[in-house]
Amino acid sequence: MAKVNPFAIAQRQLDQCAKILHLDPGVQAILRVPSRELHVSIPVRMDDGSIKVFQGFRVQYNDAKGPCKGGIRFHPDETIDTVRALAAWMTWKCSLLDLPLGGGKGGVICNPKEMSQGEQERLCRAYIDQVGRIIGPEKDVPAPDVYTTPQMMAWMMDEYSKISGKNQFGTITGKPLALGGSAGRGDATARGGLFTVREAAKELGINLSKATIAVQGYGNAGYYAACLAQTMFGAKVVAVSDSKGCVLCDGGLDAEAVGKHKAKTSTVCNFPGAKAISDAELLELDVDILFPAALENVITEENAPRIRAKIVAELANGPTTPEADEILHKNGVHVIPDFLCNAGGVTVSYFEMVQNFYMYYWEAEDVYKRLDKKMTTAYHAVLNTSKKFNINMRQAAYVVAVERVVEAMKLRGWV
Ligand code: GLU
Asked: What percent of the chain clears pLDDT 70, i.e. is strictly above it?
């Protein structure tokens, strides 16, 4: 199968929305492309004394509603088009959650799993030396994403502070707690997603304490989703996976214990008492809720007809192709689309910015309560819109988000 270009998908999704909203073609043309992007070469001294030049990007998609916001991804398969798509989705995500922020995204083509701590630190600092001129609390605020961590955010914030000659906590979010991070940021993406799942379950009449769950991807989002599904709902996690393989246990897996096993062995594979299955099998399990929590394009027109989950809660960005979307919708699968389901991360990032500006920090319970309100409001806005226009949940999320960005552009006099 030809490799699917995520940015082409993001543009197709927007085009569908433009049709539903009868958007002015000029406005649509603005929203189809990033407002600006910076491509950088990042020289890093490696441990063996050699210099390696990495390729990096920062894309600022649209800042009509406020400073751009979005993570930085370190991945060997990163491409400018992936970063463009992710920056577009950040724009819709921030708008849908009604945050005073626009959308952006960064990426570096690298494999941090094969780099030492020192090499990672030098890469983080060198990336900020390159993109520092276009970021800042009032311009563009990066955060973690795939394969980037709170420690990396600390190095980046420190580098930016050194360049500016003052502490700049509000420039980067997802920082460690001891360095201006927010309580509740660590598991915010998963927790936010679970709030939307709770609302979806009410809508569909699913009893979550008896629900079964499969999680594809066991990074930050997938791991916490599995743990919180057990503690918040009492649900049963039957299967989880990572880039190395999948494990299944019909009687239920202890999500935290699987996390510990992965920390020790660097994979969920060979978890005692579980049996190995393939990634394809995991996606097609007969479960109540499937969490795609890894990368893009895992649910396609090829496997969509065989998806049996009642709810697909997209903690990953872009896991479902437009063709698959139609099939799932026809088959009555309730999809909680990515930029709704995984918006908890950026929502608590926004809370982190607010706390940084005020220099006053909230209790975890306050963060959870505010996050719940934001996610629940956004979920119902999308659900109501999908009913009103008789469109699927993703199209509905686009309608709500795009309308707000267009309103901001109009009020500014851009269109
Ligand atoms: N990388 C996360 C996302 O895709 C979080 C972004 C942020 O906190 O700014 O939403």
From this structure: 99
The predicted pLDDT at position 1 comes to: 42
Range list of H helices, 390-414 = 393-412
Q: What is the pLDDT of residue 18?
A: 98
What is the token pair recorded at 402? 């795009």
Which residues, other chains included, contact 130 with Cβ-Cβ below 8 Å and sequence gap of 6+? Answer: 38, 40, 41, 42, 56
Q: What is the pLDDT of residues 102-148, one digit of tens each?
A: 999 999 999 999 999 999 999 999 999 999 999 999 999 999 999 99
Position in ligand 1 atom list of the atom nearest CA 86: 4
Burial of 80 (0-12, 13-18, 19+ CB in 10 A): middle
What tens digit of pLDDT does each residue of 383-397 get? 999 999 999 999 999
Q: Return left, alpha or beta for 345; rule: phi > 0 is left, psi -120 to 50 is alpha, else beta.
A: alpha
Asked if 183 and 177 count as a contact pair (C-beta separation under 8 A), the reply is yes
Q: Which residues are known to be catalytic?
A: 105
Bridge pairing between strands 289-292 and 311-313: parallel
Mutation test residue for ligand 1: of 346, 355, 374, the one with most atoms within 8 Å of CB: 346
Q: What residue ranges line ligand 1, CB within 6 angstroms? A: 69-71, 93, 143, 145, 173-174, 317, 342, 345-346, 349
Q: What domains are there in the chain, each with its CATH number?
A: 36-174 (3.40.50.10860), 188-341 (3.40.50.720)
And the tokens for 49?
A: 């004394």
Question: Which H or E run contains 373?
Answer: helix 364-389
